[in-house]
Design a protein that fits this description.
heterodimer, A: 286 residues, mainly alpha, MetI-like fold, two-stranded antiparallel sheet, 13 helices, B: 271 residues, 2 domains, globular
Chain lengths: 286, 271
């Protein structure tokens, strides 16, 4: 009898915490989206004004477009690079643990460190990347100053930072593929590509899905990278979803509109992930 | 066959250079004279701690280190204690609404933080927690991921162990902390490492709720230092600050490398 109350006692702190820091904020965001508020003055009900503004807000669509560009580069690049190294590591090798640990190093280091470091690497005049390009006889690239290249450059940096985690995840995935499947394919004279396409790929599909979902969430969560590197520029071409919320909320104190942005970005993330899940499930059944 | 193996090693070593050389360069640049940084490739002509001295003079970096340690330790302790309590209740105690709570927890894991960011900030303002440690700690001491990990782990512990303890007159708190914790070291390590690292590296939330320099966390202080004017466009100083920020986690990584990788691989979860 008393044990039942013990259960409630054990989960009570969680329930209180959930109500305060999750349920209330979600509910309150539904209130905020209909208001104009700078926290100090009284809240002002504005009906659908925030939605109307959003539908006509070039910056909102710019942030969405920037996120899309980021994801279109980041996701395929990450999958290819991670699979490539995971394939190489998935065999009897000396120093395998060392390689894995080295590739993993950028994963554990703070994004602030990585961004400050890459700011130097990307520097137009004297960055290591341009010095390397000049040394091999190519021209300098405006990594962060060229509006068309700034977001792809951030995608490159993010891939460098995160890919170590996905190498490890793919390695786990590859090791779970039963060796008999490859042996059977060998007996039937399958080529390396056929084995990869028809055995490896379907077996690691869940890992690919995980990479896609985590990268998508990561793309919509980009903040410190543009905050330090570009401030969202040049020409707002690196303005990310979270950086835009941050600016609206904490530069301009447009709490109602910032909450509206947050609400829609969150909705979009969930929508995109559900679509991705459907696509992956279809791929598996084919 | 032999040459193929060599090719593989060559590519793998190239990978090591790509992923680690930038950090090596960063450390060398932070030790180099300012003039040499723009042309530095490997080693500077002489090394000095001048850039580090300047960081220490310009920003309260040791105070920020202390803040980060305090906040990360407090959050980690909270997540371990509360996470294991809830995980224990969900896996080993029976009560009405247990499944409902479990589904709520799963749901919060899928909830993007973008939706709660602004309302949570407003909550901090109303609580008067802006510019206090409370704002950095309390919203994070419960975490769905920790609860799920502990629940999974406790489900794998034999019921006999718990029954035996109960016959000996142990209460549930004693069972959890005296009997289960010593048997749950892998789960504690996994949740502990991930929580500590995520808290240590978090920068958006501190930027929002902390404005006074004495309470800033290390990544926050250094991010503001890097974008603000106080580094005075000096490269060495920024890179020295970044190196100091990287150092604690990299040191921990060197010693517990396997645990870091395994923790993050089992969860596939970051930030």
């Amino acid at each position: 009898m008393t044990r039942r109350y013990t259960g409630y006692g054990f989960v009570l702190p969680y329930v209180v915490h959930f109500l305060l820091f999750v349920a209330f904020p979600v509910g309150f965001s539904l209130v905020l989206v209909f208001h104009r508020w700078n926290i100090i003055a009284p809240m002002e009900f504005v009906g659908l004004h925030n939605f109307h503004r959003l539908a006509n807000d070039a910056l909102f669509f710019r942030a969405l477009g920037n996120t899309l560009i980021f994801l279109l580069i980041h996701i395929p690049l990450q999958i290819v690079v991670a699979l490539f190294f995971a394939e190489l590591l998935n065999r009897q090798l000396r120093l395998r643990g060392f390689f894995r640990a080295a590739y993993f190093l950028p994963v554990i280091v703070s994004g602030v460190v990585v961004t400050i470091l890459w700011q130097r690497l990307f520097s137009y005049d004297s960055g290591l990347l341009n010095r390397l390009l000049v040394a091999i006889g190519l021209g300098k690239v405006g990594w962060l100053v060229d509006p068309d290249l700034a977001m792809p450059s951030i995608a490159l940096m993010a891939t460098w930072k995160n890919v170590g985690l996905y190498i490890v995840l793919f390695l786990v995935g590859l090791q779970s593929v039963p060796a008999q499947l490859y042996e059977a394919a060998d007996l039937e004279g399958a080529t390396a590509w056929q084995k990869f396409r028809h055995i490896t790929l379907p077996m690691i599909n869940p890992t690919i899905f995980l990479v896609v979902v985590l990268s998508t969430i990561g793309g919509f969560s980009l903040f410190i990278e543009p905050y330090i590197l570009t401030g969202g520029g040049p020409l707002n071409r690196t303005l990310s979803a979270v950086l835009y919320i941050y600016k609206e909320g904490f530069f301009f104190y447009h709490m109602g509109y910032a909450a509206t942005l947050g609400f829609f970005f969150a909705l979009l993330i969930m929508l995109v992930v559900v679509i991705q899940k459907k696509l992956v499930e279809r791929e598996v059944t084919i | 066959m032999g040459s193929r193996k060599w090719m593989i090693y060559l590519v793998l070593i190239a990978g090591v250079i790509v992923f680690t050389y930038p950090f090596f360069w960063m450390v060398m640049a932070s030790l180099a004279p300012e003039k040499e940084i723009e042309s530095l490739v490997l080693l500077p002509s002489r090394m000095s701690l001048h850039s580090y001295q300047q960081v220490v003079e310009k920003i309260p970096i040791f105070r920020a280190l202390l803040n980060s340690l305090l906040v990360s330790a407090a959050v980690t302790a909270g997540v371990l204690v509360f996470g294991s309590m809830v995980g224990y209740a969900l896996s080993r105690l029976r009560f009405r609404g247990r499944n409902l709570i479990f589904y709520v927890i799963l749901f919060t894991m899928t909830l993007p933080f973008q939706i709660t960011l602004i309302p949570q900030y407003i909550l901090m303002v109303k609580f008067g927690w802006v510019d206090t440690y409370l704002a950095l700690i309390v919203p994070y001491i419960m975490n769905a991921f920790g609860i799920i990990m502990f629940r999974q782990f406790f489900m794998s512990i034999p019921q006999d162990l718990i029954d035996a303890a109960r016959i000996d007159g142990c209460g549930d708190l004693q069972i959890l902390f005296r009997i289960l914790w010593p048997n749950a070291v892998p789960a504690l390590v996994t949740v502990g490492i991930i929580t500590f690292m995520n808290t240590w590296n978090e920068v958006l939330w501190p930027l929002i709720v902390i404005r006074v320099e004495e309470l800033m966390t290390m990544p926050q202080l250094i991010a503001l230092f890097a974008v603000g004017g106080r580094a005075e466009a000096q490269l060495g100083v920024k890179l020295a600050a970044a190196t100091m920020l990287a150092l604690p986690i990299v040191l921990a990584y060197l010693f517990f490398q396997r645990y870091f990788i395994e923790s993050m691989a089992t969860t596939g979860l970051k930030e």
